[in-house]
Amino acid sequence: MKWTDPVASIRRRWGRHRQEQEGAVRTLVSNLPYEDLKKKDHPNCQYKSNVIKTTKYTLWSFVPKNLYEQFHRVANLYFVGLAVLNFVPVVNAFQPEVALIPICVILALTAFKDGWVDLRRFQMDQKLNNLPCLVYSRIETGFVERRWKDVRVGDFIKVVSNEIIPADILLLHTSNPDSVCLMETANLDGETNLKQRKVVPGFSAPNSPFKPGGFKSTVVCERPNNDLNHFSGYIEKPDKKKLGFGIDSLLLRGCTTRNTDESSGIVVYAGHETKSMLNNSGARYKRSKLERKLNADVLYCVLLLFSMCLIGALGHAIWLETFSDVPLYMVPDSEGRFIPPTLAGFYMFFTMIILLQVLIPISLYVSIELVKMGQVFFITQDLDLYHEETDTRIQCQALNITEDLGQIQHVFSDKTGTLTENKMVFRRCTITGTEYSHSENAVRLAVLGETDASEDEVTLFQQRRKRRQPSLFAEDPGEAAGRCHDAQADVASYQSSKVAAGVHSDLAFSSPLETEVVPDRKLLQVVLEADRLREGGSLDQGLNQGLERSLYLDFFVALAICNTVVVSTATAQRQRVKGRRNSYAPQTVWGRLRGFLKKTGSPWSASKFVAGKQEPLADPFAADEEPPDISDTPDIYTTTPEGGNPKTQSEVTSNQAQRQRPDPTRPGSASPDDVCYESQSPDESALVHAARAYGSTLLERTPDRVTVLLPHGTLLSYEVLDILTFDSTRKRMSVLVRHPHTDEIILYTKGADSAVMEILEDPAGESVSQCELRKRVCSNTQRHLDMYARDGLRTLCFAKRVVSQKAYEDWSLIRQQAISAIANKEKLLMDTAILLETNLTLIGATGIEDRLQENVPETIEALREAGMQVWVLTGDKTETAVNIAYACKLLDHKDLVFTLNTNNKAVCQSILESTLEEVRRYGPDPVFRGLGEGFGVQASGDLGEDPTIGLVIDGRTLSLVLEEEDLRSKFVELCRHCRSVLCCRVTPLQKSTVVKLVRDKLRVMTLAIGDGANDVNMIQAADVGIGIFGQEGMQAVMASDFAISRFKHLRRLLLVHGHWCYSRLSNMVIYFFYKNLAYVALLFWYQFFCGFSGTAMIDYWLMIFFNLFFTSVPPIMHGIMDQDASKTTLLSFPELYKIGQHSEGYRRSAFWIAMLDAFYQSLVCFFIPYLTYQGSDIDIFSFGNPMNTVSLFTIILHLAIEINAWTVVHWVTMLGSVLLYFGVTLAFSAICVTCNPPSDPYWIMQQQMADPMFYLVCLITVVVALLPKYTLQVLRGTLAPPPLLYARQLERQPPSGEEQIRIDVSQAPPDPRFTLSGLSSPPPSSPPSPIQTRHPQKL
Questions:
Q1: Reported confidence tier of residue 877, pLDDT bands at 50, 70, 90
Q2: Whole-angstrom Cα distance, residue 1144 to residue 1139?
Q3: Is the separation of the CB atoms in 645 and 147 below 8 Å?
Q4: pLDDT (tens digit per residue) in 764-806
Q5: Which member of 178, 414, 531, 704 is catalytic?
Q6: Among the listed residues 1065, 1067, 853, 871, the one whose alpha carbon sits nearest the alpha carbon of residue 951
Q7: How far is CA 941 from CA 617, 894, 936, 944, 1330, in A?
Q8: In 708-855, where does DSSP find H-type helix?
Q9: Is the torsion defined by CA of 41, 47, 51, 54 positive or negative?
Q10: How far apart are the first and last CA of the chain?
Q11: Which one, of 576, 561, 809, 597, lies nearest residue 687 by Cα?
Q12: Name one Pfam family in it (predicted).
């Protein structure tokens, strides 16, 4: 049942009403003219204030509202109803006050937890609401200090460097002469690189003072939404002129300004309407597969309870009918009438429900939560899942699906940053059709790779060592290229500069592997010659040669400026406030446990956000109670040089330009040796450093200008006219600049080859020589791109276009209309970009290497041996992805690989049908084993082995498949037969669609793993989402259920912890059902001897304590700490993971077997004491006390049989439970004189413990009750041992006995669901026949 908070419903309705009043857009004005009026009279009064309230309760509403919430849980309502029913005299089973104890304890504990969490929320709200900020006052004619809670929409706010932004502010002024503000969004998305925000274009002139009192304009923007990546609107001035703005002019609440002395703006969203707060939707909740089965079994228990109660009701009515006269002990009512047998039977039905209510496990759900918390704690403390270089451990953000880790059947993985390092290394390039291999750079990379230098991100090395940027205009090319021989010295310096693990670098993509490029000698000579000719003005002499030489310079200029890299200086460190530090400092177990409980209990700690999705948001302002001591090592954050005032276009003209040396004293410029780059993408970082290696150094970037230092020292300051950002539809980005010398408007474009090649200029109208040149360049470049892709390199194409002034002016008008639009703004902007990106001239292409992470092939192989089907979904081109797939063993050269690549729906359907027909013939029937020869493919050398099948499909074909239901069904059927699937050129939306398709069609447990924002949809669509701490922010981590630092950790997380969590929890749940039924059935059997009167032979207090204290802790510890196999065994034999995939631990048959066992044991525990004391004169409690005792021993020892790995904790909890039982029972029997008249358990336990018969009854009963269970375990382990037992036997054997165990295992009857390759008999001594390679088939 899903409960909806009525107060929240009212608030939502009122919110919708306010939105309807607000309209499609938000219009706001300055509050300054109305400052002396009451807030309700302000024109912006309908918008929410900046007060944050995340609490659920007040002091007066806590008790009623919390009880109201708890009563909406069906289990609580059920037990409260039974407790109330026990107050009805005609149906009560025992003292009404006693019946209230269990439910009152549960309600009180839950209320205490909710109250404590809400108190933490209240304290955090108070801290946030009372933070200081600067608000402009018309009365004070300046900025005055206010509290965050006093800020309202329409106020003018000033934030200084390192200050947290209090609300969503439209940026109108900064102290930076370039009108930019640098903002760090790490508190929101985890990205440590600086984001650049600019003043609304055209609002004010640079360096002009900002006067909020003179603001007479109207701000029109979109309504509040949770999309952190998009924002649109315009400022309408009094003269009706509109100035459009976007997300690049919005300062987000919770972010921190960096390296900008002052920034001012007007508040557009406040409080709960800010984008960060709209993304805070609370902790994620997913229902596990085991939980869904558990709910069904609870219903079976309800049916069983009703059946037992019905039997009791009928039995009581029939028993009363056997009396000819009314028994003497029957008491009439106030009118002297006796209750008829039929009505008495009806009443007895409810009495039996009260008596047998424990059959429904009230404590099971609480116990499951405790067990999962314990499992999560031990997972996070696993040192094998700790990454020392980055000082990160696994994070578990979804506490309720730990057991799903042991049932995964399909794994969907991203490639870049997940399987690979996401450390982009410039390897090769092709310019105007000529390829340059960069062999010297390959030598340097090999040297760094041998020393494992690529494993660390150490930017202190960058800062401490002296950069040796070559003076290319004065250095011989051979000398520059010969620097590769100094790689060993660089590595030694690099290693000596390593910092201790735990000192985290905040500057991404900055290791020597990525930043240092040894130029190709031949290419360097050509570039220097081209720059020399440019200086001499002779580049245009000779048509073809001049064109080629100019394209060489254009290529590296495009590498340097066609990006969003932020330029900073190594000497200006980014100022930071004291914050948290992610360290792995040694702590005691209890200290770690306290920290873990504190973390999971915090209302903010489990919150996070996902860009564009309504996901929980991390608390950006949470402070440690005791701020940690920050290392003295300064942060490596850097800043864009301030104070510069770039020359305007009129100041830098072709007749005024001259060769300039970089002047460190010039404002706004930086020395080439001092610049550092902060990028959001490793590709951009690699390309900028490659351009720098060839002398085209990016020195400065402002919103309207970008400065590049050419090889011979000339500074080119391009005016940036527009930036056409990258999107997944165009798959390219462009920058439109004006050349400072020629005054030409040039469009530089980079993107995927498929996105650039299709928009190249048609050379039909050009001269023959130019036409031949362009065709040769295109054909050679395409050939080189294919070669790069086969080598596993990531490829990018670069092109340019010279735009006429008239064409630019016409296009600019359309562009401004799109920028000022609010509705469909993104589509309009994309259309304008497509309009300009036509008739391009191809310059060249690059090949960038992204190396595999360590142990990726071994991890994928282990996952496949565990029965998981592995998919890789990537945006790379097919050739690159296939090469990586073979390298990581996703595809094997023995596989039969089908490649689906078409853009026609009819052809797609035909290919799917023919491929599916062929694949079906490779089934379990050996008749079709040789069918692969029809494709020119040889079958495996082992004729008993079926060929394994792989599938490769590209994004265009996949989009056709996903359009129609028939194609989707055929595609899923085809993938069912494939061992591996590789999807190339797919978009983020296609990734999530594929995951949902496989999950819903095949009804399998899915896991998605990725590291970037483009993987968020896929991670959220899967049953289990895994994020990787990558180099492109933490969006994937924040959207995930679990977060790991390396792909190799997935193996241990699933095969070890996943298997343990599933087996532990499934055994514990079944044990709970067994335990409750075994105890309740004692009361049921007694009804046959007391006329089904609802009488209990055990004292009510002891009945309550039995489940609440005596038998509650051992199963919880079993669920947390039991190990059915060691971690070494589970990693050595991945096939054991199939136990969880096939739900072997928690099957419906296992549930009913446990129920039958409980019935049998309850019969033994009842009738052996009954037969022993039959005919004696003992009282009712003396009769029930031995039953209660033997039941305790039976239930505890039953769990002892189930335990696989005994620890001190198991011994302590079990012995402690027994001692607690005897201690409480002895004390209760000693003090309970008149607590339960007319029969009291006074001194009963003391008397029976003095009787030898009591001990004999306990011994015989326990042995007889557990003998079938123990015998079945022995026979099963002897006659039909499961694979898990084989593995444990092998684990216990010394090395000398391993061979004997293998031989015995090979002779045992196999389990068709499992194949333990590591446990099979040794292969024959004769060498096997060679296996011929299967070649991929392209359809």
A1: confident
A2: 5
A3: no
A4: 666 677 787 788 889 999 999 988 888 878 889 999 999 999 9
A5: 414
A6: 871
A7: 55, 10, 15, 9, 6
A8: 753-756, 768-790, 805-820, 825-836
A9: positive
A10: 51
A11: 561
A12: Cation_ATPase
Neighbours of 1090 (CB within 10 A): 14
- Encoded tokens for 619: 């608390």
**Sign (positive or negative) of CA dihedral 661, 663, 667, 668:** positive
- Say if residues 1052 and 399 touch (Cβ distance below 8 Å): no
The token pair that represents 977 in the structure block: 């037969």
* DSSP SS3 for 800: strand
Give the helix ranges, DSSP H, for 86-237. 96-129, 186-189
Residues belonging to the binding site for ATP are 414-416, 684, 726, 750, 794, 874-876, 985, 991, 1014-1015
Residue 647 pLDDT > 70, yes or no?
Answer: no
Span of 154-168, 415-429, 525-539 with lowest mean pLDDT: 525-539
Instruction: Report the distance separating Cα 1129 and Cα 1137, nearest Å.
Output: 11
d(CA 379, CA 399) in angstroms, rounded, equals: 11
What residues contact residue 616 under an 8 Å CB cut-off, 6+ apart? 279, 280, 281, 282, 283, 284, 606, 607, 608, 609
pLDDT for position 673: 65
Write the DSSP symbol of residue 501. Answer: T
- For 948-960, letters b (16+ CB in 10 Å) and e give bbbbbbbbbbbbb
Cα–Cα distance between 848 and 682 in angstroms, integer? 10
Binding site residue list: 414-416, 684, 726, 750, 794, 874-876, 985, 991, 1011, 1014-1015
- Cβ atoms of residues 408 and 1051 within 8 Å: no
Active site residue 155: no
43, 29 in Cβ contact below 8 A?
Answer: yes
Q: How far apart are CA 1156 and CA 308, in angstroms?
A: 14
* Closest C-alpha to 475, from 674, 714, 711: 711
In 3D, which of 368, 297, 419 has the Cα closest to residue 980? 419
Cα 568 off chain centre by: 31
At 514, which amino acid appears? Answer: E
Q: Tell me how far apart the alpha carbons of residues 86 and 92 are, in angstroms, rounded to a whole number.
A: 4
Residues pairing with 220 in the sheet: 27, 234
Range from 90-94, 229-233, 582-586, 594-598 carrying the lowest mean pLDDT: 582-586
Give the H or E element holding residue 14: helix 6-22
Annotated binding site for Mg(2+): 414, 416, 1011, 1015
| Per-residue pLDDT, 1014 | 79
Distance CA(1021)–CA(992), nearest Å, equals: 6
Rg (Cα) of the chain, in Å, rounded?
37
Alpha-carbon distance of 782 to 796, in angstroms, equals 11
Task: Name which of 251, 253, 232, 255 is nearest 243 in CA terms.
Answer: 232
CA distance 838 to 815: 16
- Bigger pLDDT: 524 or 21? 524
CA angle 1218, 1220, 1224 (to 5 degrees): 125
pLDDT at 1094: 87
The Cα 657–Cα 710 span in angstroms is 14
Residue type, 637: Y
State CA 218 to chain mean position distance: 41
Beta strands in 164-294 (DSSP E): 168-174, 180-184, 194-198, 218-222, 233-236, 242-245, 250-251, 256-258, 262-269
- Residue 541, strand partner residues: none
The rounded distance, in Å, linking the Cα atoms of 91 and 99 is 13
Cβ count near 577 (within 10 Å): 10
**pTM of structure:** 0.72
Cis peptide before 1238 (omega within 30 of 0): yes
The better pLDDT of the pair 620, 339 is held by 339
Q: What is the dihedral of CA 705, 710, 712, 717, to 10 degrees?
A: -10
**Which tokens belong to 1248?**
């029976």
The rounded distance, in Å, linking the Cα atoms of 614 and 620 is 17
